[in-house]
Amino acid sequence: DLKAAEGGLTAAKGKSAGAEAQLSYTRIVSPIDGVVTDRPFYQGETAPSGSPIITVMNLSQVVARAHISQQEAALIKVGDPANVIVAQVPEAHGKVTLVSPALDPNSTTVEVWVQVPNPQGLLRPGASARVAIVTQTVPNAIVAPASALLTGSDGSTSIMVLDTDNKVSRKRI
């Protein structure tokens, strides 16, 4: 009888090890650091096979997607500096990471991606943003507001400037 009792104890231990193995399969580990942004199932609910049970996002970098006209997109290249502007968030500096080779058939625009570091997590996925992309820089350029430009009747453009003696003169551009 003692041997039978020991055998029963061994069988119980075997069931416990099987339960522990089953439990180890229920542990969910993300391959990336991030925050949980979606959990479509409640605790204890069985998820259908093949469906995602949790979504984790790494928010240390975000991508702003902008749709730009064909003419403007022709000037943009991967690596160009860009800024992403979101309300109540300081301007974020990034760079162009993708210029789509195809047009969006619905809007005939080109999709451009701008990747921006997000160390404080202030930029949130899904938020509306404005994107400013620098396509060309001109060193030592003189910059004037468009409202200061004067157009003559012959189509020439000029601007009023102050010379070294503080005298106003018209300069053709």
Your description of this structure?
- The protein has 173 residues and is of the alpha+beta class.
- It is 16% helix and 34% strand.
- The protein is elongated.
- Unreliable stretches (pLDDT < 50, length at least 5) are 1-12
What is the general shape? elongated
Beta-strand segment tally:
10
End-to-end gap: 109 Å
Helices and strands: which structural class? Answer: alpha+beta
Portion of residues within helices: 10-25%
**SSE string:** HEEEHEEEEEEE
Kindly provide the radius of gyration, computed on alpha-carbon positions and rounded to a whole number of angstroms.
Answer: 31 Å
Keywords:
disordered N terminus; five-stranded antiparallel β-sheet; three-stranded antiparallel β-sheet; 2 helices; 173 residues; elongated; 10 strands; alpha+beta
